Write the structure tokens for this entry.
Amino acid sequence: MRCLFLLFLCFPMFAHSLTIATWNMQTFFDAETCGTEYREFKGERWTRDAYERRVRSASEALKKIGADVIVLEEVENEGVLFDLFNEYAAGFNAKKIWRYACFASEKGASIGVAVISRFALENVRTHCVDVRTNGAQSSVRPIVEVDVKAGKRTVTVFANHWKSKLGGGENIRRAQEQSLSFAFGRRIHSGGAAVACGDFNSDLAQFLRDESGEKIVLRGKTDCTSVFSAWDFAHADGGSYAFKGKWERIDHIFFAGAVELCAFKVLAEPPFIAPNGFPARFSLFSHSGLSDHLPLCATLDFL
């Protein structure tokens, strides 16, 4: 397991609300070959120039997202974070720069999960699950838990990228749900505020609901944790990911505890969408586009 914690000098800030976003960046590899990259990023199509162009376009996209805290999935390593930081720091409003970041991935994994923040990040932890098939341990991305210190307020953020639907993976996603349920429940039962973001590779309809239908139930091994889904406050159809021309809601922002949602949006707008209205997925052939996922952004008020 690798975990990186970056800390940059920042002036104290005080907040009554927090904007948080999640974005799957779609296989964001750097220009160095270390052997764990996906096969298509080891060939001649992926060059230093192509990578730098993608960093520039991604940094502009991050500025457009503009949230205080952004959870990023499918980032290769901490070096990508440094490159993004250096790019969007150049000529950018110093008060809006994300000065804090953390990154984690499984040892030998191709991609990991990151959190960038304008507020201080504290108590970075990872939650890993051990799922074995025929005695062999499956590759499972960790859930990153980090406390965001927004002035005198603290909210715990859980960054997720659950197992893909390709080849099944239901038992692994179930184990990840159990892990998140336990950690999330522990936080809110102590009176705190918590948010879980990321690519869960599970549509909203695949989660259980409580009897009222108002909350999502994260199933634990013994106990369950009830949370709100930001999708339930959306006033439009659509989703964050499209499969065979059909929208899916597999990216999520769940919240519970001492926070309430006051705004939520899916960034279904340029440069995140293509002319056909679906995500402007990154193309390795033309080096165009951004990602096959749309960002989600929520504004939360502290209670």
Observations:
- The first strand starts at residue 2 and ends at 6.
- The first helix runs from residue 48 to 65.
- Residues 19 and 109 are 30 Å apart (CA to CA).
